UniProtKB/TrEMBL annotation:
Coiled coil: none
Residue numbers of 4-aspartylphosphate PTMs: D55
A Pfam family per the record: Sigma54_activat
Name under which the protein is recorded: Stage 0 sporulation protein A homolog
Length: 514
């Protein structure tokens, strides 16, 4: 009995099972073949597999249902969907449901099939033990300046984006203003087979209709006043590359008709032209509006929507990926700081706390502006709350003042009572709302300072101020906790080197993981 990796082939066409058996058995793989859904369910119960090749259409089963069953019963098994050209949209949906990839039948390139299976096997062995540098797309993301972060939603999004990048199908990116739709489009282009060809972008909402048409399709000499020479449009300039149509929902119905013609025929006319011009471009469109609603309102063509929406990528707003704010801040510091201006500043813990409490309606674009402004206002090496906008710092500080406006005995007693009622432990804190935690934090912080002052004024000897060493140890421990043990970010926030942080942590008996 073969003890190698297990490959499950589910296809109702017998030649497909025979093909994979002959292709893979001499490589030491253990092959299981099912020609129906019933046989597939039985094999999944009996044996463990590393990779499953699943046909989307079976007489007695749906490929997507089989995919979900496999991922539920054998989560480590990577599923490759086998599909005909007519079911490409469904195959892309399968990737969003957790499929590793899809491949179209018939299999013209045997090496490509073998490479895909090897890649899935490798992913199956390492899934769950990857950090952000181990993902196959990490280098591509770094090259285009795409800050993916560690949010599971972003990791899944980029993993899906990488897999559909090589498929040469149109992509629709949806996300709020400032979430980074263009940089995601550049990532898809850089991960595609068109990476060495042009990537051109145009904002469909930034130009009036006549100028947008000329920008997209070009114009002939003399076609309108001022058209002194023939000019190529970006559909022509981006030939064999990728065209990014930002804010596609803002395009007029007239422009939409012309875009649909290009997508259907691969041809267009320059403004004032009579001879069709051929083009071969991949379209990545982006919008911050609900195009399905726009279709229902008759402001966006339904046929164009389905041409663009072959696969949809949803970018989460920054408020749903708060854990990525510190590394994004670090990225923008490196981007905006003049390296000749001296020591690079860092953002204080209070600044990061304020940023985490803010709702970021402008998303990453707004964060970049805040960091750039703060660096311009900061004279020293530490960015403080006073260097960033009041609309960001005001949220937490107003809450503090409302919760702890003065040091009267009555108000202090109320705070003490509230803290006691909370019965603060990790379980209770985990169940609190974010704003509730912040309110409680500022109240406790204010109460602590007030208690210190009162103890000193009344000469109470049972409690003494902490030493510099104790303060240093506490700062190190709290900063490491704040940054989830990230040594680089903690060292930067503390204003010391990594080696110094390791040495001091050892000196104070503070455990550093990693």
């Amino acid at each position: 009995m073969v003890n190698g990796p297990g490959i499950l082939v589910i296809d109702d066409e017998q030649p497909v099972g025979t093909f994979f058996t002959r292709l893979l058995s001499n490589k030491g793989y253990r092959i299981g073949v099912a020609s129906s859904g019933a046989q597939a369910y039985e094999l999944i119960e009996q044996e463990k597999f590393d990779v499953a090749m699943v046909d989307l259409k079976l007489p007695d089963a749906d490929g997507l249902s089989l995919l979900q069953h496999i991922k539920a019963h054998q989560p480590g098994c990577e599923v490759i969907i086998m599909t005909g050209y007519s079911t490409t949209r469904t195959a892309v949906k399968a990737i969003q449901f957790g499929a590793f990839d899809y491949i179209e039948k018939p299999f013209d390139d045997i090496e490509l099939v073998e490479e895909l299976i090897e890649k899935a096997l490798s992913f199956s062995k390492t899934e769950g033990a990857l950090d952000d540098k181990d993902y196959g797309w990490a280098k591509v993301a770094e090259d285009v300046g795409f800050q993916v972060g560690k949010t599971p939603k972003m990791i899944k999004l980029v993993s899906i984006s990488e897999r559909i990048a090589t498929k040469d199908i149109n992509v629709l990116i949806h996300g709020e203003t400032g979430t980074g739709k263009e940089v995601l489009a550049r990532f898809v282009h850089a991960a595609s087979n068109r990476r060495d060809k042009p990537f051109l972008a145009i904002n469909c909402g930034a130009l009036p209709e006549n100028l947008l048409e000329s920008e997209l399709f070009g114009h002939e000499k003399g076609s309108f006043t001022g058209a002194n020479v023939q000019r190529k449009g970006i559909f022509e300039l981006a030939n064999n590359g990728t065209l990014f149509l930002d804010e596609i929902g803002e395009a007029s119905l007239s422009i939409q008709v012309k875009l649909l013609r290009v997508l259907e025929t691969g041809e267009f006319l320059r403004v004032g032209g009579e001879k069709p011009v051929k083009t071969n471009v991949r379209i990545i469109a982006a919008t911050n509006v609900d195009l399905e609603e726009a279709v229902a309102q008759k402001s966006f063509r339904e046929d164009l929507f389905y041409r663009l929406d072959v696969v949809r990528l949803e970018l989460p707003p920054l408020r749903e990926r708060k854990e990525d704010i510190p590394p994004l801040v670090e990225h923008f510091i490196n981007k905006f700081w003049d390296k000749n201006a001296g020591i690079m500043p860092i953002f204080s813990v209070n600044c990061i706390e304020d940023m985490n409490a803010y709702h970021w309606p402008g998303n990453i674009r707004e964060l970049a502006n805040v960091v750039e402004q703060a660096l311009a206002l900061c004279d020293g090496n530490m960015v403080l709350p006073e260097h960033i906008s009041n609309k960001i710092t005001g949220q937490s500080h107003i809450n503090f003042k409302e919760g702890y406006p003065s040091n009267t005995q009555t108000e202090q007693a109320e705070i003490i009572g509230e803290v006691a009622l909370k019965s603060i432990d990790e379980e209770n804190l985990e169940n609190m709302e974010e704003q509730e935690i912040l309110n409680l934090y500022y109240k406790v912080e204010g109460l602590y300072k007030s208690l210190q002052t009162t103890i000193g004024r009344r000469g109470i000897k049972d409690v003494f101020p902490v030493s510099i060493q104790e303060l240093e140890a506490r700062a190190i421990e709290e900063t490491l906790g704040f940054y989830n043990g990230n040594v680089s970010m903690s060292a930067r926030a503390l204003g010391i080197g990594r080696n110094t942080l390791y040495r001091k942590a050892k000196e104070y008996n503070i455990n550093i993981n990693g």
